[in-house]
Amino acid sequence: MKFSRLVVQILLVVAVVTSFILSFFIWTNTARYQRGRNIDVSTSDVDKNKTPIDQIISPTQIIWQDGKDQRLLYNNKDNISFNMQKTIKNWKVGEFKEEFTKDGAKYQKLIQRKDMIQLIYPTDISIRTLGYLLGNNQLQKAKDHPFNRILLSTDDKDTDEIYLANDENYTVYKASVKGASADPIIKLARKANIDLKVKLNLMKHGVVTFYSDPITLKRYSYVMSSKADSEYTTNLFDTNTDDINNSAEGNTYTYSVGESKRLVSDHDKNELTFSDYTDTSVPKDLLTFFQRGYKKATNIQNSVSNLRLYDASWKNKTLIYREYVEGFPIFKKSEFGSIKIVFSRNGSTEQFLNKVLEVPVPSDLRNVTLKPTTEIMKELNNAGYSPSDIQKLEVGYQWTNEEDNNSVVDLEPTYYIKINNHWKSFDDWTGISAQTVSSYNSSNTRVNTSANTQSNTSEGE
After folding, report:
1. Partners of 423 in the beta sheet?
2. Where are the transmembrane segments (predicted)?
3. DSSP 8-state secondary structure symbol assigned to residue 117
4. Residue at 306 is within a domain
5. Which range marks the domain in which residue 134 is found?
6. Is position 369 within any domain?
7. Is there a domain that residue 257 lies in?
């Protein structure tokens, strides 16, 4: 009996000690016991798979005025524009103050200044957004202004200043910088294996990059992947599949949860539209606008490393994302790019394509040489489109499916022009090819000639 009592007493002591130890861990580290309660844990597997926000919202062009010419630079093995943005994280950037506004002459002089590198975003972001991307707390609290260009001096005598510029209203902001050096920026610029001579011209609707000479770019072919509708409903509805109602009309399928959420999938066009009528809060500032857009975009396609924020309209609360290849945007057969997100008081809407570039495949397609931009402008004018009609003009990749293989996509470089709020290729606007007939070689135009089997993550880290 005494022995059994002793065993009971020892077990009670062990139980009490164990209880205290467990209580201690719970009191001092509750997070590990709460991961199933919808807590936002940044180290979760889901977050690890997402393309980071500073990669999706990053410059897509670098233009360097090296003292002689302005040149557009790109490296298809190393995303130098993204790496330049990361380099600025190490600098201590002060408060941005307005230098001037609505002065086209001063603006053109600045963006053509010698010994200057420009990091160009395809759309306006904002000073607080830049602060968030750089991890700069001071900039996140600064007075917010939109911009789309960062200008950095490559002259060590002038590296104590940094400029932000807005093409829409010709406004420039300047801030002092500590800890900056031109060396890492120049080192990245010299890694470019695509080097195109350009000139920045001011037109009615903003700044347009003119290619001074014919430019030769590669064609690409990619295997395309898609998802079953059930994969999207799992991500977007956040509910038990038994609660989802579905119906079909022809080749269009509709999935809904009561009157709160609806997904329409058009299998003929491979386009989907998701409406969330419970999401009625409209972003109150630009940083929140971009953060919420990023969260929605990566919830749709969480690992698209070549996806970039392409166009943002604060007035219409609309964000558009496109995929990129070789630093140029891909124009698919849709009016909204890859993903379009709209916020409103009636709920948010997300339009997206069920087409994602996955694996590059060998291609025997010959390189394409495009005409200089001045020739493109002349032919647009001859076709009845004046310079004042042109809202935007840029080189991009045209997406076409191969006739004998729907899972393979060919990407062909051409000029794209925005007129009357519609993007079309130069060929579609004019009926004329944007390509030159004769081959062209220039010391100012260096084009990568490596195999087409490179990974599509060349736009990534």
Report:
1. 418
2. 6-27
3. E
4. no
5. 53-214
6. no
7. no
